[in-house]
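Journal club side-thread
Mid-discussion, someone asked how the predicted structure for our own chain would compare to the paper's figures. Pasting it here so we can look after the session.
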Amino acid sequence: MKHFATGIFLTLFLLTFPHATLAQLPPLQPLKGTPAPPTPKDPKKFTFILAGDNRPDKSMCPLDGKKSPCPPTDTVKKIFENIKKKSPAFVLWTGDVISGKDPDSPQDIHDEYKDFLQVAASGNAAVYNAPGNHEMNDKSNCPNSTMLDLYLKDTSQAQPYGSFDYGDSHFIALDSDEDTPTTSDSCNCSKFTGDDKPPGYISKTQMDALIADLSANAKKAHIFIFLHRPLEAYKQADQLCPANVAQMQTLFQQYPNVSYVVAGHEHLYYNLQGATESAKFYDPPPTRNDPDSSGPYYLVSGGAGAPLKSIKVGGEKKKSFYHYLIFNVDHAAVSVQLEPIS
């Protein structure tokens, strides 16, 4: 009866206020223990860093039970050492900050977050995260409410997604591992068994908030979107639900100021705009010179410490490489540096 009354109220509200706007994305906060970003000296000119997928190899988890079950890798420590030296305005992270996926061991999850957050704080910069499947899901790679609660509590977040402004640009973090409305949905995790991994999913509630958020920020100089599961990637299996991808690509084309969409999940660097398939793994990211050009640039950056993926380059199997990206915003232009980590 309560849900029926709520539905009636909402219907009457929309009939009374037909132009009422949908709720925008909630404010996104820096991860626990990292500072707020400084006020920009020039709102049109600043630098930020992006990286993601630092969770350790499963062979490192657990140890002897006396130490952290999944200690941070040397790679992610190096990245935050570099972040401290470079002093960016802030840092964006594309998720999988812990090995996770174990709602039955909350203390281990808490310890993993504690260790990662300690490393993140060492960079002396605000860190904003878009959570990945290792934060949000259980061992079957299905969204799990306990894992969500642990993420929100341990990272001091109100929601797993949100947005914030810096200078005259806008930044959006999405949660790409929500549950589908029903188990009969084609992207529901229960339909995938064995070697077939379930795709990520973005709910209608989050999608509606994204639509409202883009509309409200249509006059910003740039919009940067970061999430864990790629829309465009090296391999389409185990990515974002195709229905979400189609809707979001159409949506982003309506907003010329959506400059970059960057994801992780695949433990490699991938530049969709590369001239050849081989070049996509090594070509530096494209520079955005004209915010009125059609569509955003799509990148994958998942090289912050997780086990690297093998790739085929010119018929030869090679390892991808650890890295992070440096974004330099300069009025209408945005340039991106690819920084390998040895």
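Post-session note: The first strand starts at residue 45 and ends at 51.
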